[in-house]
């Protein structure tokens, strides 16, 4: 049985103020929810919930690698294939502060008069999605504008690094 799913990308998947107000990684959390759905429903389609393999290519390979490391994904799959992407890719993780700066820039370009994370969230939620997409397009760079946020001090998505040999 083959299952494919969609998840939020770009601004809608990875916007963040790098705090608890807009923590980010919504695209990764969408993937976790899809994997939970697979566990709950795959048997109804003739699949085995104990034999789930996750596959990702390029940015999908990066996501797959993060699922291998994330406590949120534990037990949701049993094998993984990473093709042309891994969490070790230099383009796969944003340095601290970068995504917050991009989020603030999106807010400013969208006409938000916001200084705090809560004000940014409040303003952006009131805007039509099409406006946000148009604003996001102004940030085109050679790869990905809104990247995954890895905060090693929290368990929001990826907890502390673990010894894989254990």
From TrEMBL:
Molecular function per GO: carboxylic ester hydrolase activity
InterPro entries attached to this UniProt entry: AB_hydrolase_fold, CarbesteraseB, Carboxylesterase_B_AS
Keywords, sorted A to Z: Glycoprotein, Hydrolase, Serine esterase
Stretches assigned to the Carboxylesterase type B domain: 1-140
Enzyme Commission code: 3.1.1.-
Coiled coil: none
Enzyme class, UniProt record, top EC level: hydrolase
UniProt record similarity statement: Belongs to the type-B carboxylesterase/lipase family.
Protein name (Swiss-Prot/TrEMBL): Carboxylic ester hydrolase
Organism: Sipha flava (yellow sugarcane aphid)
């Amino acid at each position: 049985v083959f299952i494919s799913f969609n998840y939020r990308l770009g601004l809608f998947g990875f916007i963040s103020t790098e705090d608890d107000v807009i923590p980010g990684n919504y695209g990764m959390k969408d993937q976790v929810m899809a994997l939970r759905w697979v566990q709950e429903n795959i048997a109804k389609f003739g699949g085995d919930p104990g034999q789930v393999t996750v596959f990702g290519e390029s940015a999908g390979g990066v996501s797959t690698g993060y699922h291998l490391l994330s406590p949120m994904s534990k037990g949701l799959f049993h094998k993984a294939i990473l093709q042309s992407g891994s969490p070790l890719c230099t383009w796969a993780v944003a340095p601290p502060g970068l995504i917050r700066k991009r989020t603030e820039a999106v807010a400013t370009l969208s006409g938000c008069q916001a200084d705090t994370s809560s004000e940014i969230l409040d303003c952006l939620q009131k805007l039509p999605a099409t406006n946000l997409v148009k604003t996001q397009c102004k940030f085109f760079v050679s790869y990905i504008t809104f990247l995954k946020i890895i905060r090693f001090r929290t368990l929001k998505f990826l907890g502390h690094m673990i010894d894989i040999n254990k």
